[in-house]
Amino acid sequence: MKRTLVIADETHELEIRRRRGITVMTWDGEEIPLDICKVERASYSIILNDLSVGVNLDRIRNPDPDLHGFRGTTYDGVYEFTLQDPRKILLAEAMARSKRSECSLIRALMPGKVLKLLVAPGEAVEEGQPLLILEAMKMQNEYTAPTAARVAQVHVEEGVNLEIHAPMITLEALEADGTPKP
């Protein structure tokens, strides 16, 4: 599975997978064969381009729950980095785009199962308020209100499996006094 890797201010796309018995790392689109051997609990021996490198990996706490922090120690220094599922980035970008609409139709950005509805039709919601939880690929994705609005319609029920782009909730933008915009 692809991950977004951030080291200092540099962002890279990383994917490690086995293909025909060989471990292949794709780094920013370039495929590189490598050999990884776990030596101890958090220690690995990596052979990359005919060079052997010992790496110790430790998890580090990150304030953002969507980012997984690590500290890698090699012969030439210590590198702190984070890994993020790129689908989370796409979800955040899509939610930001939906803020610009007067009437927002919240759609499933990936196929999944509606685990929990957190709002009902007619209910006023604030920006960032959770609307529902969609389980996709064993991850729980919380969809939030892009702006203060009123829930005009709920198109789904708990337990329903959805296809990508399925309509879930329609929101109506509110005036400053809390009434729906015409």
Residue runs with pLDDT of under 50 for 5 or more positions? none
Number of helices: 1
CATH topological fold name of the largest domain: Glycoprotein, Type 4 Pilin
Which series of helices and strands comes N to C?
EEEEEEEEHEEEEEEEE
Architecture (CATH level 2) name of the largest domain: 2-Layer Sandwich
Structural write-up:
There is one protein chain. With 182 residues, the protein is mainly beta. It folds into two domains: 3-84, Glycoprotein, Type 4 Pilin, CATH 3.30.700.30; 92-173, OB fold (Dihydrolipoamide Acetyltransferase, E2P) (Beta Barrel). The protein has one helix and 16 strands. The protein has one helix at 86-98, and strands at 3-7, 10-19, 22-27, 30-40, 43-48, 51-60, 67-74, 77-84, 103-107, 112-117, 124-125, 130-136, 139-144, 149-154, 161-162, 167-173. The strands form three sheets. An eight-stranded antiparallel β-barrel has the order 1-2-3-4-5-6-7-8. A four-stranded antiparallel sheet has the order 9-16-14-11, with no helix packed on it. β2 (10-19) and β3 form a beta hairpin. The chain is elongated and about 65 Å long. The chain starts with a strand and ends in a 9-residue tail after the last strand.
Walk me through the topology.
Blueprint (H helix, E strand, L loop, with lengths): L2 E5 L2 E10 L2 E6 L2 E11 L2 E6 L2 E10 L6 E8 L2 E8 L1 H13 L4 E5 L4 E6 L6 E2 L4 E7 L2 E6 L4 E6 L6 E2 L4 E7 L9
Antiparallel strand pairs: 1-2, 1-8, 2-3, 3-4, 4-5, 5-6, 6-7, 7-8, 9-16, 10-12, 10-15, 11-14, 12-13, 14-16
